[in-house]
Structure formats: C-alpha cells, structure tokens
Amino acid sequence: MTCNKCPLNIESESFRPTMYEALPLHAKAVFVCRNVNRKSSCGDVSAARQLCARDLWVLAFIGCKEKFAVDKAVETLDSLVAGGHSELLCHLFENAGYETRRALWLRMTSNYPRRLYMFDSMFEKECLPTLNKAELPENIHIYRHYLLYTGGQENSLLKDL
Question: Contact at 8 Å (CB) between 155 and 61?
C-alpha cells in the first residue's frame, strides 16, 4: 500500500477519519500519517528502519483483531523484517490470531528463511535452540508449532493508550 492510498494518511483521498473514533484524543496523532509524496518504500537504509502509521496501527490493534490491522499485517511483517525490528516482529506474532500467524509464518519462511533468527528471543523462552542464519533446521516444525499455537492474547498496548 502506498501512502497516497492509505486510510490513515490525512492527505489521502482514501482517508477514513472514522477509524480514529475509538481512540482517545491524545493517542490519535500517533496514528495519523501526513506523508504527501511517498508513493512506495524508499531504498534508503535509514528509511527502512522507519515505521509508518500503518505499521504502528497494526502493532497496536492486531490483538483486537481489528480488520485493517489484520489485513495489513503482512505488509507490516515486511517492514519489520526490513528494518530489523525483531522485538516488534515477536510482538506481532504473539498478539496475532491463529490465521494471521499462519499467514505470517508462511510469508516469513518463504520470503525470509534466513531471517528466522529474529524470533530467537521467543524460542529461548521455550528452551528451543537459536536458529542458524545459514540453514533451516530439520526440526523446523517444532518452531512453527510454537509460533502458531502460542500467543493470541489481546494486545495490552491498546488498554494503555
């Protein structure tokens, strides 16, 4: 999705102010995008580390199964992997519902198999060995099972807003 088509971009023709109705006034500004010129992701390394309003929305509302957050979770996964945000990637998986986690896992293993080490902090909690960056382990099904069947608790970040 490009900024000029995003419902969180106040400059966009697709802007949906009704999405903000459930948010407290002091939290709304965090999720408003005002990017006018951005048509796609920039190849700049520092730009890759930046998260957009859509990514923040997904991270905040994925646990509530909010439709926009669920629909855009795959794009957020791509942003988090590109930016090297392993803690936020783990947060995304821990708070997403089963179907979303399954879609995210399939995307992660097909597009980023050498970046699975980003989940090491989650695996270490379950006493699973860390993943080797060079190759997938024979017992990858154990890691998949852990990621698919854990988590799913409601995101506490929304309550803190």
Answer: yes
